[in-house]
Amino acid sequence: MSTRVVAVVVTWNRRDLLVEALDALRKQSAPVSALVVVDNASTDETPATLRTYDDLDVVTLAENTGGAGGFAAGIERALDAHAPDLIWLMDDDTVATPTASERLLDVYASADPTPVVLASRVVWTDGRDHPMNTPRRKPRASADEVRRAAAVDAIPVRSASFVSIMCDADTVRERGLPIADYFLWNDDFEYSTRLLRGRTGLYCPDSVVVHKTKAFGSTDADPGSRFYYEVRNKTWLFTRSRGLAPLEKAVYGGSTARRWIRTIAASSDRRTLWRGLGRGLRDGIRSGPRSNEVVLRNVRTTDGSNGNDRLPPTDGDFPTS
Asked: What is the value of pTM for the model shown?
């Protein structure tokens, strides 16, 4: 029996890139079984363009909830309506090469143990590996894990980016959806580590996608006022998420602190970043992320495609410590 792959793409005001991404998904050598597009309240020509397709399941949100809210709504739709074995998550500015899904499925079928997350190689428009989306190699992976991964031309990872990952649907059902309140940053880090804790994740270099960002670089390049979300969300992750074990939190926490210092030191507006650091730490410690039910309470589908009363699970479904 063939593996059912449902692709979920979240979009906001990037109509031309979205069309390119959708065309690439429809031309995969291993076709997807269904394609869910979450329109995050686009104000450009995206809504009109999506109405011209007859093979999409479009979830239209009334507010821009960012990638976290968009993927939460899209994954829920995939689970409810399309009975996936794997859910393929992708941004609207990501163009999959023709064999991207086939290569991931080859590894899924051959790897032992079966991975619950498979990550593509993400390159920029000039073919260089994109630093924004490089999966984190699993620290302290055993020699056996490395050997088993190498047998299928893969590398063990501990986390991965939403830009192109396939997630095992049964594991998603067990461990819940992305947390919508992780607006802007670290939603994929929290979610992928949560899915992968105690499980196998593999980076598959033969599966290639092109991430067509405007510039080549990482997300911590002088982030300005957005630094607040990086700090708040990482504080939530280290204090409340069960994605990382206690020792991992200490290791990743130290690495994060060093990166924050480097980011502030390199910034042309250090005052804004210091302010974001203080506010982010304060808000992240004072209270945790709100439940998806609260965050998305007034975000209803405006086209009725998946029902006005359907929301992702409440926070009771999310692992928190």
From this structure: 0.89
